[in-house]
Amino acid sequence: MTTIVKKEIFNQSKKGFKKLALKGLFDAIDSNKNGYISPEQFWNELKSHGILENDKRLKEIKNTFSRAYSENQKGIDFDLFSNSINQSVLLTKGLRGELVIPDFNGFCKQIIDIYNQVEGNMGGAVADYIPQLARVNPKQFAVSICTVDGQRFDYGDSDRNFCLQSTCKPINYCIAHEELGEDFVHNHIGREPSGRSFNEMALNNDGLPHNPLINAGAIMCSSLIDRKAPIADRFDKVMKTWSDLSGSDDIAFNNSVYLSERQTADRNFALAYFMSEKKAFPENTDLIETLEFYFQCCSIELKSPSMASAAATLANGGVNPLTGKKVFSASTAKNCLSLMNSCGMYDFSGEYAFKIGFPAKSGVSGAMLIVIPNVMGICVWSPNLDELGNSVRGVEFSKKLGERFNFHNYDSLINNNDKIDPRKNKYENKIDNVIGLIYAASHGDVDEIKKIEAKGIDLNSADYDGRTALHLAASEGQAEVVEYLIRRKVNADVKDRWGGTPSKDAKRGKHKIIVELLENYLAN
After folding, report:
1. pLDDT number for residue 411
2. Residues in a beta bridge with 278
């Protein structure tokens, strides 16, 4: 046989290696080493990677595992495990640590650390111009995360309801944008930061609200949504959109807050009549109905996990990562995030974009909807507000998040060795590309090896134990990696600190194809 394994033999061996890899995953979960794993063991393992038992994408597999456990009381055997894994890309990637945040446990520990640092900050005060908001407990504090792969984490008071307030504005903009298109919407609303307070009696030079994320612009958006339908149907549309965004049924309406909003709305009424005087609204707009609709949207309430999922939908280009449902088009999501980045934090928007650098929208309920594009959505809720109307803890949490992680829109332009990129595996973050190379080899990731090689990293590089990529690939049964490394003419008789060679590792693991590959390579 030639040094390069013949294609037909290699293809025949792929299934065997895949089964071997699955057996390794199974054995890692089977802590009792009795050939069975309980559903609890399985879901706990998956939770460590950020995938929760109530994930709707895994409903059928959950039912299958529950039936199997109830029938034999021993648990899930390897055959059932492997069949289920083979049916789900989510399970395969999740258990192998290949989701967008590979070391999700480590990431969550970092989030808890930031939470604990921020929790003691009781500066600011709750919004008191809306009586119902003035009664909220200022000590409450929640953080929820949902990645674009559906990895989830909640901490603090994540089971408490709060009202959307101004965090409804970007979503109402998206609804109008989807229905009417960019040009129509922006014939009635500008796209620039106002440089004024969120409820300032000010319009741009064209007599339009400056952007959709201040009160005047949000009122205008409310006039555009499904404008020919009865107000009840229009509100149902908004509620359904939030349900689709969150993948949750816990979206509710707080009538007390609505009535409180309505009784303290003189400025919003004045803004509406000011825009009407400037003929900014579409023809035949009912101002009172529009304002009622706007107050209702502000009074929708949910929990932080639902808002995090909505933020993740925007991060995922408009597709809900938990359900796969396309809620908004990618162009709608892009335009919304652009506005959030420049206008989402009231008069702090410029400073937030400069220092922190990712899209966010705050509300006077203390909610913050944060988006890390292509990575995750985050919700921070803490009722105490600063003088600009932003959550005190929310802003501080954002600052510490930006200081610790490589999330600023332009972090990629500079070498941020002091920041963590959670999208990389834990070894790459902690050390360098050599460990990344060895990690990729152990996981059979040839594409990643090629990327690292392109950076000028020697494929013969070893870790502190003298183990190379070929050692790890041979040990873990990664035949495709071994073939690639042989083709790149790496050193195959290199010894680690214990005198072990790749061939010895392959023999110990009983990887016969790899043993044959290495022996033929060394013989030639």
Report:
1. 86
2. none
Q: How confident is the model at residue 68 (pLDDT cuts 50, 70, 90)?
A: confident
Residue 45 CA to chain centroid, in angstroms?
Answer: 20
391 secondary structure, DSSP code: B
Yes or no: say if 230 and 212 are a contact pair by the CB < 8 Å rule: no
Q: What is the dihedral of CA 509, 514, 520, 523, to 10 degrees?
A: -40
Please write the tens of the pLDDT for every residue from 83-109: 888 888 898 888 878 899 988 999 999
pTM: 0.80
Rounded Cα distance, 369 and 361, in Å: 5
Report the chain's C-alpha Rg in angstroms: 27
Q: 379: exposed, middle or buried (C-beta count within 10 Å: 0-12, 13-18, 19+)?
A: buried
Contact 482, 474 (CB under 8 A): yes
Alpha-carbon distance of 163 to 254, in angstroms, equals: 8
- What is the rounded CA–CA span in Å between residue 246 and residue 226? 21
Residue-level pLDDT at 168: 98
- Which of 56, 104, 58, 66 lies closest to 85, judged by CA? 58
Q: For 242-295, how does the pLDDT look when each residue is reduced to its tens digit (9 = 90+)?
A: 999 999 988 999 999 999 999 999 999 999 999 999 999 999 999 999 999 999
Structure tokens at 464: 């502190």
Sign of CA dihedral 339, 341, 342, 344: positive
**3-state DSSP: the chain helix, strand, coil percent, rounded to 5?**
55, 10, 40
245-214-137 Cα angle (round to 5): 70
**Which residue carries 């959307």 as its tokens?**
164
Q: What number of residues does the chain have?
A: 524
Sequence-distant (≥ 6) Cβ neighbours of residue 30 within 8 angstroms: 36, 37, 41
Q: What is the mean pLDDT of residues 64-89?
A: 84
Measured in Å, how far apart are the chain's first and last C-alpha atoms? 11
> 166 near 212, Cβ under 8 Å?
no
Q: Which of 508, 473, 500, 475 is nearest to 487 (CA)?
A: 473
Q: Which residues are CB-contacts of 6 (< 8 A; sequence separation ≥ 6)?
A: none
Looking at residue 304, what is its pLDDT? 98
Listed residue (170, 156, 218) closest to 380, CA to CA: 156
What three-state secondary structure class fits 138? coil
Dump strand ranges (E) for 128-171: 142-147, 152-156, 162-163
pLDDT, tens digit, for every residue of 108-138?
999 999 999 999 999 999 998 888 999 999 9
Instruction: Return d(Cα 487, Cα 449) in angstroms, integer.
Output: 13
Other beta carbons within 10 angstroms of residue 418's beta carbon come to 8
pLDDT tens per residue across span 161-174: 999 999 999 999 99
